[in-house]
# Entry
Amino acid sequence: MDALEQLGKTFFDWEAMAAVLPDLLTVGLPNTLMLALASGIIGTVVGMLLAIMGISRNRVFRWIARIYTDIFRGLPAVVIILLIGLGLGPILRQITGSTSPYPLGILALSLIASAYIGEIFRSGIQSVEKGQLEASRALGFSYSASMQLVVVPQGVRRVLPALVNQFISLIKESSLVYFIGLVASERELFRVGNDAASNTGNLSPLIAAGLFYLCLTIPLTHLVNFIDNRLRVGKKQKPEPDELAARIGEGAKA
Amino acid sequence: MTTIESGTLTGRNLHLSFGTNHVLRGIDLHVDQGTTASVIGPSGSGKSTLLRVLNRLIEPDQGDILLDGRSVLKDNPDELRRRIGMVFQQFNLFPHKTVLDNVSLALRKLRKMSADEAREKALAQLDLVGLKHKADVRPGNLSGGQQQRVAIARALAMDPEVMFFDEATSALDPELVKGVLALMADLASAGMTMVVVTHEMGFSRNVSDTVTFMDGGVVVETGPPAAIFDDPRTPRLKSFLSDVL
# Structure
């Protein structure tokens, strides 16, 4: 029983959890959300740009998108975060006077996210049947209007599940920003939990932080499944028999 | 139906190659205003490509295209295509938009109509093809025949001078073909200028004013339906007709 008790004390010390709760709620959670949301939004915008460059008829654009994607998707997140955070930190300080690594954390996460999201969008856009572009062009829409109104909206819809998955990754990866050293008020969930764990010599605060992550990611996972299902099955509605086939065209005679 | 005052279409000596594949080898096609020309021929003969060259979805390597006697090769191709409606084998409706939006999109964005105007016009077009009551559903919930009629309404809404049909009934279940062909026949008798690429020999014989038989990227024979179907001159047309009739 001793071992069991030991385990319980290490992971589920309710008092240690309760002690860290205010910090998790008021400091960790807003910062995690801020990091994930900001880099998610920037990553989506830049990702769309990369996707459009990636399918561009201009070879230079295609190459830029390719190289960018290969680099930022191919490196470990922590490497990018450290290089950006530590490398650009002094420059940012010279220009703005700000010592906070927080914006650089968002920048690093955005670079990573945009590389993945760009590929997600590109695959979605390229999965749209050629006939859609052709039909739109045949109506008299330009290439860019056709992409904007017809092709891209369909492509994005198809990859919504993958996009939400990417946001889930971002929420988790935002914990890596702690590597570049955050001041107390900038700590995200992991750092708050980890600090408390170090101070108390007990892992329960980290478990508490983990529970916060799960509260964010599990609903998103289910959202993915819901969207995925809706996209595959659609709102069920049975096509009617072609009862009007017999009498159509009568109007055209008038 | 409004009567269309223009729409004489001429293709002259049209050539097109994809790499070493010479798809069109000097095609001449003339369609008088208010008449229907059908284009028949075996698969791979270049019929569908010809339609796409005539509205410049694909630019010809050589030759000229005239609408109402004036070359349109120097025009903005987007503007040319607003004057020519096109209906596809696979319908190509926009699945993320309702039936109404499919028909009204180009009216709003290209004809710059107000939302109400576009809606009214689109509903009137849908009424003509018997599908006004489906205005608010997505194309995915319609049968193939219904989808094709929406596609026809979408093209007609732009008041085109010419209508192209690219094997418009080939993807339909047999029992749905009749409704779409009837609609096309009505359009023809209402005076629409039409170019119809088709495998429906009955339609070609009964509805069209001229029939053009293509094979291997050239026009082998062209003439009124009676001449083509009852009195074929070339061995290639004879053998094609004996295969399909």
Summary: The radius of gyration of chain A is 25 Å. The CA atoms of residues 138 and 150 of chain A lie 13 Å apart.
